[in-house]
Amino acid sequence: MHSHSQFKKYYPFIGPFDPCPPIRVKLYNTPPHLYIHFQPPGLPQFSPYEALRKGTLWPALYGPYESKAVEGGPLT
């Protein structure tokens, strides 16, 4: 229903005297319900079984948790 990505990124300031290795890109998660200002009538629905598994009745509000640590180590 929405075309927004659930994950956003930003590039923090890296000071010349930071004592730790810099994290050049940081990610944060924005839940799907931020992009739906009201619930329109007739939204598609998951089956009851699928809704219990996913934690929501509506696919437009489903935001899966995707661990970035599994994809290949630390984010840099």
From TrEMBL:
<dbReference type="InterPro" id="IPR020256">
    <property type="entry name" value="Spore_coat_CotJA"/>
</dbReference>
<protein>
    <submittedName>
        <fullName>Spore coat associated protein CotJA</fullName>
    </submittedName>
</protein>
<dbReference type="Pfam" id="PF11007">
    <property type="entry name" value="CotJA"/>
</dbReference>
